[in-house]
Amino acid sequence: MKRILIGLVAVLAGLGVGGVGAWGAGRFLPQLVGGHPKAAGKVATEFVPAGEILAPLVFADGRLSGYASFECQLEVTEGKAEDVGAKLPLLLNAVNLRTYRAPLASGPDGLVPGLDAFRRVVMEAAAEVYGKDVVRSVAVTRASPA
């Protein structure tokens, strides 16, 4: 009987110590490493229109297929819209250079495979121009052949 009672007390004490330790780690550890992960997703953002972008459509072998016109908006952290807008010509130049090198006309008969190709090109160019964490996402609002 004494063995069972000692084992039961040890299990309950272990659960109590473990629970308090988990609560303490959840309460104080996120503040030490820079904030709670859920709170980081609630950052206020705004959209900056990039205007109309004329991009060359290039086959995989480097031949020019035609041109496409698309509009997109850049999602940035609130307060950085002026900085992003000031460097917009640099972004358009980087997009133009990337679309000329990227085989965007890789669909059947030289068609654009989808909007993801435009989004990927703009995100890569934005990371080059503004830095890695300034532009959170890109929304392609319109795309058409030119």
Describe this structure in words.
With 146 residues, this protein is an alpha+beta fold. It has helices spanning 2-32, 37-40, 81-86, 88-101, 115-130; strands at 45-58, 64-77, 135-145. A three-stranded antiparallel sheet has the order 1-2-3. The longest helix is centred in the first third of the chain and has 31 residues, at 2-32. It is elongated and about 85 Å long. The protein starts with a helix and ends with a strand.
- Let me know the average pLDDT: 82
What's the arrangement of strands in the largest beta sheet? 1-2-3
Largest sheet: 3 strands, antiparallel
| Rg | 26 Å
Q: What low-confidence regions span 5 or more consecutive residues with pLDDT below 50?
A: none
What percent of the residues sit in helical stretches (DSSP H or I)?
Answer: 40-55%
List the helices and strands and how they pair.
Layout (H helix, E strand, L loop, with lengths): L1 H31 L4 H4 L4 E14 L5 E14 L3 H6 L1 H14 L13 H16 L4 E11 L1
Antiparallel strand pairs: 1-2, 2-3
Task: Provide a brief overview of the structure.
This protein is 49% helix and 27% strand. With 146 residues, it is an alpha+beta fold.
Q: Which labels suit this protein?
A:
alpha+beta, elongated
